[in-house]
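Lab channel / #folding
Pinned by the channel admin:
"Please post every new chain as: sequence first, then the structure tokens as a reply. Keep commentary short and put observations after the output so the thread stays searchable."

First post following the new format, from NK:
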Amino acid sequence: MSHLTPDASTVGSLAVMTATYALYSNGLPSVADIRTAKPGNRDIDAAERSAAWMAAGVVAGVSIVTKDPTIFIIGGATVIGLSWWYRHANMVNPEIGKAIATFTGPTNITEAAAQEDANSYDLGAYETSA
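Reply from TO:
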């Protein structure tokens, strides 16, 4: 049961949303910058996870102190939404402007090298020694 009035619960939810957005904004580059970078940047992944954990801690802490489930629900939804937004931006290939799933790429270093070699050669320029 909530100890806050509906008005206070709404203000608390908005404050937690603002704090969550501030954590993401200060801990990560802008979404536009992430979308123009190479997809799958590990530094951005690590920063996003850190921001998500810190934001989840703030949401949980404020929810426990206020004993208000509305703050937890709204704050949790904000953390999930911002996490998805930044993770999606980190999957976007700037050349085509669309997200590329990580499971479509090479699974090990040998496949990555083979893929890079295949992309670097012109298909008509192979020489054979027969």
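NK: The two ends are 81 Å apart (CA to CA).
TO: also worth noting, Residues 10-104 form one domain.
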